[in-house]
Structures are given as C-alpha cells and as structure tokens.
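Subject: Protein entry, chain in single-letter code together with its fold tokens

Category: Structural biology, sequence-to-fold work with a learned token vocabulary.

Notation: Tokens come from a learned vocabulary of local backbone shapes, not from coordinates.

Start of record: The labelled sequence and token lines come straight after this line.
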Amino acid sequence: MRSNARRVGLAICLLMLLTTCSAPRSGGLPARISGFVAPPIVDSVSIPEGQPTLQPTVTPLPEVVPTVAAGTPLAAVFSPQPGTLSPDLQSVAVQMDSYLGQLATQGNFSGTVLVNYRGQMLVRKGYGLANQELNIPAGVMTRFRLASVSKPLTALAVMQLVQAEKINLRASICTYLRDCPDAWGAITVHDLLAHTSGLQNYTDFLAFADVETKPATPAEVIARFRNLPLEFTPGSAYHYTNSNYVILGKLIEDMSGEAYPAYMRAHIFEPLGMFNTGYDTGDGAALSGTRGYVGVGTSATPIDTSNLFSAGGIFSTVDDLYTLIQALDAGTLLPLDVLAQMYTPNLFNYGYAWKIESRFNHRVIYHPGLMSGAVTYLGHYPDDKLTVIVLSNNEYTNAGGTADYLAGLVFGG
C-alpha cells in the first residue's frame, strides 16, 4: 500500500505555497494532480522550507550543447545557446549549481533545471537519476511528464483557434461541442480557461484511485463528470479543475477536426522544433526510461496519463519548454495582443493557464504541475527576460519554491 508515502507527499504539498495536491475526499489511494490555492501576491520569497542555504563552491558548470535539431528555422532561432557568462552572473550560476547539487545529494531533488537570464544560460543541467533501477542520470535530453504544465500548451492551442476565428471566448461551449449536456449551456470557453466553469474536478473523486493506472479514452474521462451538477454558477467563482482542460481538449478536436495529440504536434511542437515534446499516450513509453519516485528507492504510482488527457498528458524537456517561451515572447505562435489575453489575470490572479503574480517586486507568469511521479514548474519574468524551468521525477521536490529561490539569486533577493 502507498498510504504512508502518500501522507508524506501530502505534507510536502502543504509546504508548497503555489500548489495543492488533489486527492479523494476520503480513503482510497489519492491521485496527485496539479492544482492551485490562492496565495497572496508576494514581493519576496524565502528559501523553501526544508531546503538548505548553501555556500557556493567554485566549480565550473559543464559545457552545454544545443539539443534542438538543426535545419529547422524556428528551432535555430529559439534553441538555447551556450555562451560565456558575464562576470556578475558567474558567481550566481555557481551558487545555483551548488544548491541544486546538494538538494540532489540529500534526496530532495532529481531532475533537470534551466535558468536563462537575458540570453545568458545560468543553469542547464540534470541532477540525480531519471531511472533509479537502471541508473539512468537525468540530463538536458531527459523527457519528463509535465503534469499540469501541460495546461499552458492546451490553452495556447485554444487561443490559436480563437485567432483563426473558429472559437469565441465568450460563447457557450455548447456552441462548439458536438455532445454537450444542457447544464453546460451557461459555461463559456473563457470559463474553462479561467477555471470559473463550476465543473466538478473528477481527479478529486474517490473512484479516481480505482482507474488512474488504467488506460482511458477522452470520452470515458469526460463521462466521469459530465452528468454531475455544477458546483456554482459559471463565472461566479474560481475552482481549479482538471475537468475544464479535459473539455478544452475535446473542444480543440471538435473545432479543428484533428485529434488532440495530432493538433499539438502539427501546430505547436513541429513548427517550433520541439521534437522531444509530445502527448504521452499513457504508459510512459515515450519517456525513454524516465520513471517517477517518492524520494529515493520508492516508485510512485504509475498513473496512466490518458486519464489526464489535455489537462496533464504532455511530456517535454527543459530545452523544448525554453524554446516555447522564446517563441511566445517573439509572437511566433500567437500575436502579442492575443497572448496578452492569456497573461491577463482573472479571479485569483489566474489568466488562461498562467498564474500572474509578483516575486521580488518583479512580475512573474508561471504554472506548476504535480502528479504521481512528477513535480514541475514553468516560470517566466517577461519584463526581465528571466526564465526558470524545473522538471522533476521526485515527489519530494518543491519545484515552485526551488524556482523562486533561483530567481531570488538573480534578483539579489
């Protein structure tokens, strides 16, 4: 049974100011799916609890090599490039590397981190093991399940369809969905994106523990909540709900005529040269050996990500996610005025699959992810050109707190 490991994991979640674990309401074996509470906007962040203040050692960072395939124009433009750090950032990079290395040594982190500040790569490195049984080290090419960091990618696809005038954000979702319950008539596309729909969160249901390791079709996932009453009048409240982004995946399919994985590949991943990113069909075969753990030596629940569909079924690498951020900044996939809608806070500072807050008196746009065997964070300080990406297969990882600490080193916080 996994109850003890689950209790430890839930305790860690309470320390993570940015996320909560979604779990069954009682008993069972709870699933770990990313969610949000609504922390106050803060202008300073302390070192994550349980993670040490480290004294840097003078150890040079290893040489890094771009991994995005050559010959693809956009990949050539947006792929991370190595370079010599400016003197003021060299010591910061050493502190980051030492800090992450100690976390890995203590068993509090395994995964890959990328930190880029104004075009200078401070960290781009793996720590610990991607597979403990096979002794496979984590590296910059390691693929990780993104959990709810999948949501910004799903929202991006929806906004592409908005830009193409195939979707109106303020229209009822029943305008577009081929099989739409009457109770959903008042829900708009905006409500799904902003988590104000009132749909119940199916990953909170006790029964989810009975199906999370088994494959499911999108229709089977939707059937788990489609006939349930709404929790509140659409638009009147905020509740972070995976159900919203599952329905958005179905909407993408109905309005594009393409299966969700095919749409994401053809319209986002391939145009940007994100060749290490894709939809995990469920069993983790696409991860090239990466497995999830609860600390050291304890395997996490092998959740079949088909149960998450477009709410959490994508895998990627730090390089590919950095490529995505650069493309968004450049207006490559979306015009900047359309992208601005995604970055506009609604209830509880949640935009369209991005949380918009302040750290160290700097605006940050981010999304965390948390599920069985994966803890992730994608954050960007657009005004400062700082990107922090943390991808981990260790449930003990405080990805959001770690990312904040790394950003604080840059800002001198």
About this structure: Residues 332 and 370 are 29 Å apart (CA to CA). The first helix runs from residue 3 to 15.
